[in-house]
Amino acid sequence: MDFFETIMFPFKWLVSIIMVGFHEGLSTIGLPAANGWTWTLSIIGLVLVIRAALIPVFVKQIKAQRGMQLLQPDLKKLQDKYKGKTDQLSRQAMAQEQMAMYKKHGTNPFSACLPMLIQMPFFFALFQVLSGITAARDKGAGIGAMSHEQVVQFDESSIFGAPLSATLLHGTPAGGNVVAVWTLSIVMILAMTASQFITQKQIMAKNMSEEAMASPFMRQQKMMLYILPIVFGVGGINFPIGVLIYWTTTNLWTMAQQFFVIRRMPTPGSPAAKALAERRAAKGLPALPILGGKKADVEAEAAAAAAVAEAKSQRIQPQRKNRKKK
Questions:
Q1: 276 and 260 fall within a common domain
Q2: Which of 44, 89, 276, 320 is most buried, judging by how many CB atoms fall within 10 Å of its CB?
Q3: What's the average model confidence in pLDDT over 292-308?
C-alpha cells in the first residue's frame, strides 16, 4: 500500500459505510437491492451527509470571503505603498503588513477554499471505490465497507441502461448500453460544469461590492470562473457515472446554498444587499445585520433602508383650493 492509498484508506471506508448505510435503509423500505436507482439514491445520500456536515465550514467560508472583499481597498493601498519596491526588505515588510491585516480582520485567502479542500478526499475516495468495483468483483472481494455481494450488485446496477461504474473514457462494462453511457455521461458533465459556472457567476454578479469588483482579487476570480468548469469538464470523461452523480448533486447543493445566502445574507455594498434593503423597507421592516459585515457596513445598510422607508412614507400635504391669498 503506497502513501496515497494509506491516506485515502479511512476516507474510502467512511464513504463506503455511508453508502452502504443508505443502501441498507432503502432496501429495508422496499427498494430493490440490486437496482441502479437504489445505489444512485445512496450516492445522493452520501452528498447530503457530507454537505450537511460542512455547513459550519461553509459559514466560515462566507465570512472569510466577505472579509477578503472588505479588505480590498486596504490591500490596494498597501500595494500602492510598495509599488516599484522589489528589494527583499520591502517585500518582507509588505508580506508582514498583509498578514497583520488578515489577522486583524479574522480572514485569509485560504479560508474561502476550505469546503472544496475538505470535500476533495471524499471525492477521491468515492472515485477509488467506484473505479475499483469491477476489479473487486473479479477478485471475489469487497471494497471498503461493501461486501462482495454488494460489489456485484453495484457492478450490475444501471440507470437508463448505463452502468454506474462505467466511464466515458474507459468504456462500458459487459451488458451496458454504450449509447446510454455516452448520453448520460455528457449530460451529467454538462450539468456539473454548468451548475458550477452559474454558482460562481451569481456570486460575482450579485454579491460583490463595487470595490471588490475593481480589485485584482476579482480578476483572479474571473479567471477561475472559466478555468474550473473547463478542468472538471475535461476531467469528467474519466469519472464513473456514479462520481458524476455525486459531483453534480454537490454542485446543485452549492448553487441552492449560494442563492439562499445571496438573497438573505448578502455582502454589504453589493447589489443583493441593496435589493434586500429595498425589500425589507417596502415591508416596513428594519435592515438585518449582515453576516460577516463590519459595524459601519451594518449601520450603512440600516441607514439606507431607513431612507427608502422614509421616502416611501412621505406624502404631499394637500392644499385647499379655495384658500385665498391675503
A1: no
A2: 276
A3: 44
Window from 39-43, 60-64, 99-103 with minimum mean pLDDT: 60-64
Task: Clarify whether residues 229 and 299 are in a common domain.
Answer: no
For residue 295, the enclosing domain spans 272-313
How many independent structural domains does the chain possess? 2
For the ranges 169-178, 197-206, 247-256, the one whose mean pLDDT is highest: 247-256
User: Would you state the cell numbers that stand for residue 245, as one nine-digit string?
Assistant: 452523480
- C-alpha distances out from residue 229 to 72, 124, 146, 222, Å: 26, 18, 32, 12
For residue 57, what pLDDT band results from cuts at 50, 70 and 90?
A: confident
* Residue 326 located in a structural domain: no
Cβ contact 19:146 at 8 Å: yes
> Cell for 236?
469528467
pTM for the whole thing? 0.73
pLDDT tens, position by position, 180-198: 999 999 999 999 899 888 8
Contact 60, 111 (CB under 8 A): yes
Q: What type of residue sits at position 19?
A: M
